């Protein structure tokens, strides 16, 4: 016989919305210590949100849409609301409505971090394995998973709200089953990037892949740094999600029981929820995920991440988004397609001209490291000698050591074809240092 009142009886006397009948991670907040702790987290999430929104707007002004920065601002907003509501709940611990609102915002936000890390994972796989990464099964896997995640979080939020408006034990049991499913799904989704990225990196070591398929480079920094960032983030996010799921799978404790299991204590709530999240979100801000994981707008198909250039006439990096008609025959066939149409073909210049002019401008030689030897993944060999920025002023491709480079590319939007002309026919001029050269 328990020496504390039945939670259902207490709830019935209170009326709707009913107070919770089971203990949960974090328990009911109080002025001390919850208010100062939540105030600190509130300040940190405001800073993180402002930082990610600033980067989003700066990139947008440059024509770069890195939507994930906007997602991170949205995540920070949910955490700002969660901490603000938890502060209010601390001051009015008997307000069930404040408790419901605080719990909803805690549930709603975390999936944005999981989704962002899945996008990073997808980009790594498509970079290391361009042809496999763009196959239909792999391409539809993430959208299908997103539908499952969004549907699950909606069911979870509805279930949590409904639990405060019913005393029916069968309904409450089903709601608990939904919570168990939702938290377990969170843990699985948070864990997924780890096996996927590790498998992709190990498969990259196989000689048949290493020697025959190039990497579709994207963003700044090395592939090793991108992989490390995803793995570390996934490890911490999975730790937090697993703790929440584990505490829910343990036997339920009545909310009126004055004895609280150690794993429900507030320090574990703040460590495995807000502390892990703020560390991840601030590290992503400091390490500039907007630069490391940026891909060209509209990138679609193998080798579209690199920006659509063919380096010194080298096949394999055609602008896939332009369609199948931009085939190899336009790159290696007759150069006549580029002559006699001088008024329509634009040579050299910047990719930025695509947004300003009616004629698309491609051309020049790549400044990417194309040194013969070991690539950024540690295994991919690259075909041409490299050169530094200060070596290319006034030089042609041959002058900087790109052996066999004979043509500069120009895109003719009217004919819908690539056009080539020999570099030897070009006047000696400083090469543009603008984007896209």
TrEMBL record:
Keywords: Membrane, Transmembrane, Transmembrane helix
Keyword Transmembrane in annotation: yes
Transmembrane segments: 35-55, 67-88, 100-120, 140-165, 185-203, 227-248, 268-287
Protein's UniProt name: Uncharacterized protein
């Amino acid at each position: 016989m328990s020496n504390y009142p039945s939670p259902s009886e207490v709830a019935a006397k209170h009326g709707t919305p009913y107070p919770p009948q089971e203990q949960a991670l974090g328990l009911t907040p109080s002025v001390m210590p919850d208010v100062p702790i939540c105030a600190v987290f509130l300040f940190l999430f405001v800073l993180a949100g402002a930082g990610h929104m600033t980067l989003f707007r700066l990139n947008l002004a440059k024509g770069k849409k890195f939507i994930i920065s906007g997602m991170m601002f949205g995540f920070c907003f949910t955490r700002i609301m969660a901490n603000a509501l938890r502060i209010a709940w601390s001051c009015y611990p008997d307000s069930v409505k404040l408790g419901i609102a605080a719990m909803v915002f805690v549930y709603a936000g975390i999936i944005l971090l999981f989704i962002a890390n899945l996008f990073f994972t997808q980009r790594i796989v498509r970079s290391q394995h361009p042809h496999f990464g763009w196959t239909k099964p792999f391409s539809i896997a993430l959208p299908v998973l997103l539908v499952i995640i969004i549907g699950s979080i909606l069911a979870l939020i509805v279930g949590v709200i409904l639990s405060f408006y019913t005393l029916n034990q069968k309904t409450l049991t089903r709601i608990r089953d939904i919570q168990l499913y939702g938290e377990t799904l969170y843990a699985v989704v948070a864990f997924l990037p780890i096996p996927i990225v590790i498998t992709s990196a190990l498969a990259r070591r196989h000689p048949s892949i290493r020697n025959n398929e190039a990497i579709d480079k994207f963003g700044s920094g090395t592939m090793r740094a991108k992989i490390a960032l995803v793995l570390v983030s996934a490890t911490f996010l999975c730790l937090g999600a697993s703790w929440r799921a584990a505490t829910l799978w343990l036997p339920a404790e009545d909310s009126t029981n004055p004895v609280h299991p150690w794993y429900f204590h507030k320090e574990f709530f703040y460590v495995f929820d807000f502390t892990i999240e703020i560390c991840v979100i601030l590290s992503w801000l400091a390490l500039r995920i907007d630069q490391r994981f940026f891909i060209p707008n509209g990138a679609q198909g193998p080798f579209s991440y690199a920006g659509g250039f063919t380096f010194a006439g080298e096949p394999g990096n055609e602008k896939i988004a332009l369609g199948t008609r931009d085939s190899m025959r336009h790159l290696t066939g007759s150069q006549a397609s580029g002559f006699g149409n001088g008024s329509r073909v634009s040579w050299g210049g910047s990719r930025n001209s695509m947004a300003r002019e009616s004629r698309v401008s491609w051309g020049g030689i790549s400044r990417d490291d194309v040194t013969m030897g070991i690539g950024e993944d540690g295994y991919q060999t690259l075909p041409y000698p490299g050169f530094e920025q200060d070596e290319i002023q006034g030089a042609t491709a041959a002058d900087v050591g790109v052996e066999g480079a004979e043509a500069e590319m120009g895109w003719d939007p009217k004919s819908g074809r690539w056009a080539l002309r020999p570099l030897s026919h070009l006047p000696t001029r400083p090469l543009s240092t603008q984007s896209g050269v």
